User: Fold this.
Amino acid sequence: MKPGSTLRIGALFALVLASLALPARVEADWKGPDAQPLFVNEANPAGYNYAPSIISENGVTDFWWCGQGQTDVIFHRSYDPQTGFSPARIVFKPTPGSWNRQYVCDPSVIRGRFVNPGDGQTYTYAMYYSGADNQPGNNNQTGLAFSNDKVTWVDYPEPVIRPLNPAVAQGNYGTGQPASFTDGKSGLFVFTTDLTGPQGVAGFGDLYVRHTADGIHFGAPVRIPNGTTDGATINPNSDFAYDAKTGDVYVITGLPGRVCHQVACKDPARNPDRETYQMGLFKMPLKVLLSGSPARWTPLGYLNSDVTGFYLNHSPGFRRDGTGSLTPFLPDITVFFSGGDPYPGTWRIAEARATRGADRLPLRRAIGPAGHWVTTGYVAPAYRAEGSVGSVLTLSAPGTARLMSCVAGQDHFLSRDVRCEGQTPLGQTGYVFETPRPGSHPIYRCNAGGRDHFVSTLAGCEGHTTEGLLGYALD
Assistant:
């Protein structure tokens, strides 16, 4: 993606992401980056960074991501627990005079055995990427490059996946934002966004998957279901991974951003693109995904500003092995993404990790320079913990209501309104029951001095103004 265009599809060992669950599901307790990037790109400290592709194998984790050179280019660095991070460097650029001469972006790197017809050589790694020949960023196509050392790449001279409708692509994005994995049996699957296909197809969006036996020649595209069982939508700006033990496909997807005529935000001119603040984690059996039916994805958790501490969160990628599998790391799932503010110069690669946890999280109350802050997620370092006001569910269940984490200036507050009553949404922080049940207690929204919102278990709000019942938290 180039700054100003639609966010494209596409942190390490300091964070924890978990599987969220309802009483009958797996749950996730996200541990976010505490508003800190995983690293700063010292090769261009003021540039943007997003759409990471990650492979962990043989004790080393490699990162490729889209960053700022003269235009979009692809950077690389590796992490070894013994030696730390290698220097960040550009490893792939646009090719002058070629179809990708304007920019290259959105890498997806996969290990296998690939024969390049151009030079007859066999390579261990393939990188699928987005490329374009024009500054507006129209007519994107999906390219391919080969490597044996992960840093020296030989470009295949032609796109390997072209837009479904080339004429329409001249005036819009085209196809790109690849993600890839192997199932260990039939070959390689490559997912792409394509904005030139039929629009408004019930149960489907603009994501497609194709199968290839040799990495270069692809079968017919299969449109990907975009609905989830809890009403969310799978969108462009997603990454996919596979679990061979269960046959499940996992997706981490960007969700719609803040709409500035409805809520307070930082970038009204470029919303909701530059106001993307939440991502969803879902899964579906591969056989179902390939069936062509409008099946629904199962939710596992949500990663948002309430968890990460970043105002903007976008362009996620999974930590995977060389084949694109999550299996070696499960039940943990690690997600890397771009965090920052709407201005691209703030975009840094960050990490969040989920571990298998309980179906509920403590709703913690803290006090600091701007008053109280109540959340299951991130709290700034200047705040001191006051304790818990109960526990909330991590995913929706029958009879529950969503609690949104919101901010108005420096005043953090919780709301049952998805639009945060016109203030700035940070994302859901959990779910409370709407009526009493055994093992629960009421929690109230309170206001001290007209400018400090907090939550109390006491209807009298500890001597301050009671603004209403939020719901029933678990003891």
About this structure: The radius of gyration is 22 Å.
